[in-house]
Amino acid sequence: MDLATLEAMNARVSQQSQFVGLLRDAIRRNVIGQDHLVDRVLIALLADGHILLEGVPGLAKTLLVKTVAAAIEAPFSRIQFTPDLLPADLVGTLIYNPAAMDFRVHKGPIFASIVLADEVNRAPAKVQSALLEAMQERQVTIGDATHKLDPLFLVLATQNPIEQEGTYPLPEAQVDRFMLKVLVGYPSRPEERQIIDLAAGGEMPVVSPVVSPQTILEARQSVRQIYVDDKVKDYVLDLVAATRRPAEPARACTRSASKGSGRASRIVHTGPPRWARMTWTASRARSSTSGRSSGPAQRARSTVSRPGAGRSAPGSSCGPDGWPRTAVPPPARRSRAR
Question: Which of 47, 255, 282, 311 has the lowest tally of Cβ within 10 angstroms?
């Protein structure tokens, strides 16, 4: 691609991503700190991918999702996953109308644009599968009719890592429906002081819409046009291939096995081609959030974020969050081309 074409594309991407700064500022009025989390949510929004948030209660995960929905003026629904939840509670069902003597469709909360699946690991596998199928197919079947979901459809699922009793771990073969996983940490002391001051003021600031859903959809089309050099594509493939040859990298997450157990850490599930596509798409979206029309290898490395780590189930002695900490190879010098 010649320089003039690249500059023209850069100008177009910068123009179509101007709203990102406004959206980020609108979120920060309500959500103090958590900049890494905010950036990853914006990447998922532009990359048309779903995101899994893991952290203890009280870290503004729900507040963030509600704030994003209000800022983009999109329909929002929150689903509290519980052990007695049924798939029909999620996707909807047929209700008999005695006056007309027929059945009518009652759509479930999944038909919103922004869906918060709160504590997704609290519901049994059949409910999780209904959610994950809708995430993948972008449609649900109620009775004998198929209904398309909203074009902006985005699922942000949360799970609590500190309680495992009464939970149902997400199926490892399906968890890669999530493009990104973010481990949500605690705010810093100054940020926590700001949270106290904000709460002392009474009501939370009202979030005004700063961008329309149609603008988000147009920005997604712009992301698909971002130029990615062949060397960066090769680097993305190297990242995925590292999970398929984990002999050396896997040692990074190996701990001393219990005496007499004789078991060492290993990656059980390796990266399918879906990981390469997700990493490639997420890196382009991250370029868009920074107003650039190219995707260097550093962005691919930072947004690997583990889209793929979802199916890399470790052995018994890897990280406590259940995700492998496979060493990612540094970008090769040949991969630094813009």
Answer: 255
Residues 190-229: tens digit of each pLDDT: 999 988 888 887 777 788 899 999 999 988 888 888 878 8
| Distance in angstroms (rounded) separating the CA atoms of residues 313 and 267 | 6
Are residues 252 and 149 part of one domain?
Answer: no
Q: SS3 for 172?
A: coil
* Same domain membership, residue 239 and residue 192: no
Three-state DSSP at 330 gives coil
**Do 83 and 210 belong together in one domain?**
yes
CA quadruple 170, 172, 177, 182: dihedral sign: positive
- Residue 300's closest CA among 220, 219, 231? 231
* Residue 2 placed within a domain: no
Measured CA to CA, the distance from residue 285 to residue 127 in angstroms comes to: 30
Residue among 180, 155, 177, 186 nearest 57 (CA): 186
Q: Is 64 helix (H, G, I), strand (E, B) or coil?
A: helix
Domain residue limits at 276: 226-338
Which CATH number fits the domain that encloses residue 42? 3.40.50.300
DSSP string, 301-325: HHT-TTTGGGG--B-TTS-TTS---
Average pLDDT for runs of 10 along the chain of length 338 = 71 76 89 90 93 88 92 93 92 90 91 93 88 90 90 92 76 78 90 87 81 91 83 85 63 39 47 82 84 53 49 41 40 42
